[in-house]
Structures are given as C-alpha cells and as structure tokens.
Design goal:
Shape: globular
Distance between the termini: 86 Å
Structural class: mainly alpha
Number of strands: 0
CATH topology of the largest domain: MetI-like fold
Largest sheet: none
CATH superfamily of the largest domain: MetI-like
Radius of gyration: 32 Å
Number of helices: 11
Number of domains: 2
Order of helices and strands: HHHHHHHHHHH
CATH class of the largest domain: Mainly Alpha
Low-confidence stretches: 1-6, 8-14
Length: 321
C-alpha cells in the first residue's frame, strides 16, 4: 500500500499529458536538427574536397598543355616564316617547306567534307524521320555508336583493303579522303541526330496542318532549324580528320613528294604525316625537330580556325524556340 503509484502516460490528462508530448516533440526536433547539421557539414566538406580535386586536375592538365605549347613555340622560332609555308619539301632542312602537305591536307578535306556531310545527314534523317522504332533501327543505332569508339588504325586497315587495293585507288587523295570520311562519319551522324531531335514538334505539326508533305516538312522546316547543330558537328568532325595520322600511315601515304598534287587521283602527303616522319628522323637530323614544331604550329592554327568557324556558325544561326 505504501508503494508509489506511477501513472501510465496514456492515463495522463490535461496540461500534464500535453506538456509531455510537447517535450517529446521538442527533443526529437532537436536531435533531428543536430543530425541534419552533421549531414550538411559532411556534404559541404565533400563538396569543397571534390571541387579542389577537380581544380587541381584541371590546372595540372593546363600546365602540361602550356609546357608543350611553350616547347613547340620555342623550337619553331627562326623556322616558321613565309619561305617555310611556300617552299616544297626537301631533304635539306634549311630548304624544306610545307606547301605540298598544306595543299594535300586541303584537298583531303575537299573529299572528307562533302562525303561525310551528305552520308551523315542522310543517315540521321532516315533514322530520326523515316525509320520506325524497331529492331532494325536499334541495330543500326548501336552499330553507329560502336563505330565511334573503334580505333582509327582499324579504319586505316579498312581503307587499305577496300579503297587502296580492291578499288585500285592506291595512296591517292581520294583513297585517303574516303578512309577519313568513314572515320568521322559516326560523329556527324550522332550530332545531326541530336540536332534533328532538338527541333520542336509543333513546327512539324504546323507544317503538316498547312498541307505540307513529310519530305517538304523535313526540307523546309526541320533541316533549317537543325542546321546550326549539323554544321557544328560536321566542322568538329573535320577538325578531327585533319589531325589524324594512323589511317594515313596504314594507307602508305608517302612523306617526301616533290610534286604538288593536281587531282584527287594523285599521290599526296599531309601535315600530320609530315610531322610524324620529321619526328622520327630527328635522331638522324636534329633540325627536323624544328621543322616538326613549325608544322605543328601551322596545324594547330588550322584546327583553331575550324573550331572558331564552328562556334561562329552556331552562335549566328542558333534559334530559340
């Protein structure tokens, strides 16, 4: 009888019970806020750590790039002049120029650009506008994506077997251009597909509502709206093709040609090939390192110009829908 009686919390009533519940809520809220602050602190620390690591990696890459550019510019001083750009190739370093490789690279791009643009855009239009969503379309799309990751030397072997030997084109400009077109074709297809997908659907519907056919809608509505993305992807693909070396090496493109190519069926050499062989011959002739550095500056200038053109085209023709 003298034992103390402890009432159950469920039996409490009035202010006592409400005060206990309010205290429990305050206590739970306090502990949850403490846990939330701890989680937030960990996330902030993780964010700063990740940002620092990414910044360090970026600065390291820029440092390596700056060192390479500095070394190239240093080695090219005294060799990169108008005579170097207008002279033909020579076995004597002081007489050597890159007029032939520059013309060869330009003629190579004269083959790559129309072939890649026509085949790439046509393939993208077929996949996006005409091919139904099925197994065939999925197989084609998968193969295009896989081709984008194939090493460039494999395309060189394909070009050697098909264009150089089967078609008898040898090491001509046409053989090299067709091989390079196969190399960069997946890039153009994917970029053109993304550009066509970005065209709003209501533009197509408005064209159909006016009585236009499917092809008229594609030609008059879809392609003009997707043109900035298509041109940008094409120029980026050409920028890759103009700097590729491995496919041309496999094709057996010669390095020392005194004659300037006059047609697409003539043998040629290109800037990447000439840089590659000058670098190899540096052991025998140290001056070739200076010639290679000067040629690298010219090639980098061409790449920067192409990328700048792509940016200008994108900014000029881009539309907001």
């Amino acid at each position: 009888m003298n034992a103390k009686f402890k009432p159950d919390s469920n039996q409490l009533s009035g202010p006592t019970r409400h005060g206990s519940e309010r205290g429990d809520r305050i206590s739970a809220s306090y502990f949850s806020s403490v846990a939330a602050r701890r989680r937030m602190k960990r996330r902030v620390v993780l964010n700063y750590t990740a940002r620092g690591v990414f910044l360090l990696v970026t600065l390291l890459a820029l440092l390596v790039l700056a060192i390479l550019i500095y070394q190239i510019i240093k080695d090219s001083i005294g060799w990169l002049d108008l005579k170097f750009l207008t002279n033909n190739l020579s076995i004597f370093p002081e007489r050597a120029g890159i007029k032939g490789p520059i013309i060869g690279s330009l003629l190579l791009m004269a083959v790559v650009i129309p072939v890649t643009a026509l085949l790439g855009v046509a393939t993208a239009i077929f996949l996006e506008e005409f091919a139904g969503k099925g197994r065939i379309q999925s197989i084609i799309q998968t193969n295009i994506s896989n081709l984008a990751g194939v090493p460039s030397v494999i395309f060189g072997l394909l070009g050697l077997a098909v264009f150089s030997r089967a078609l008898g084109l040898g090491s001509s400009i046409l053989a090299g251009g067709l091989t390079m077109s196969l190399l960069v074709l997946p890039i153009v297809v994917v970029s053109a597909q993304e550009a066509i997908r970005a065209v709003p659907g209501y533009l197509r519907e408005a064209s159909y509502a006016l009585g236009a056919t499917k092809w008229t809608t594609i030609r008059r509505v879809v392609l003009p709206a997707a043109l900035p993305g298509i041109l940008t992807g094409t120029i980026f693909a050409v920028s890759r093709a103009i700097g590729e070396t491995a496919p041309l090496v496999v094709l057996g493109i010669p390095t020392l040609i005194m004659k300037i190519p006059a047609s697409l069926f003539d043998d040629f050499t290109a800037l990447p090939i000439q840089i590659y062989y000058w670098t190899l011959d540096t052991v025998l002739t140290p001056e070739y390192a200076n010639l290679a550095a000067a040629a690298i500056i010219v090639l980098m200038t061409m790449l920067i110009l192409l990328n700048s053109i792509a940016i200008v085209i994108r900014n000029k023709f881009q539309r907001k829908f």
